[in-house]
Design goal:
This protein has about 130 residues and is mainly α. Helix content is about 45%, strand content about 10%. It has helices at about 20-30, 40-60, 75-90, 100-110; strands at about 95, 115-120, 125-130. The longest helix has 21 residues, at about 40-60. It is extended.
């Protein structure tokens, strides 16, 4: 990225800080085993995943690291969260705006027994449940 440009498209990725790149390289070229493997390298990879999980939990102030879930990306994270929430609350109404990411709408439409209600959203983020925004 050149100094003349400002990168604003962080929807699916972004520029990595050099410190992040350095940390990631340890895993991209060093530990290359599946954390689910039963061999020594797999156990080493799993240990690193658990250390990362604990670091994230500590950063977020979470009581238990087991509650930290890593996903492959935003779509998987959104769908897991919505389906997990939907399964715990049962039938109800989920309010969505026209500004939702397609992954949110897709996951919401997959909830069984619930009702989707569309909220309008004005240009300043103010909205209502009448669908007019």
């Amino acid at each position: 990225m050149s100094p003349e440009r400002i990168y604003l498209d962080h929807a699916a990725g972004g520029v990595l800080l050099p410190s992040v790149q350095k940390e990631m390289l340890r895993y991209l070229v060093g530990i290359q085993a599946s954390p689910g493997g039963g061999h020594r390298e797999g156990r080493e990879a799993r240990k690193e995943v658990e250390k990362a999980r604990q670091r994230v939990a500590d950063f977020l102030g979470a009581k238990e690291a087991e509650g930290v879930v890593f996903t492959s990306g935003g779509t998987e994270a959104v769908q897991s969260a919505i389906h997990g929430w939907g399964g715990s609350v049962g039938k109800g109404t989920l309010y969505l705006s026209g500004m939702e990411h397609p992954a949110v709408e897709s996951a919401a439409r997959g909830l069984e027994g619930g009702v989707l209600s569309w909220c309008g959203c004005r240009w300043m983020g103010r909205g209502g449940t009448d669908g007019k925004g």
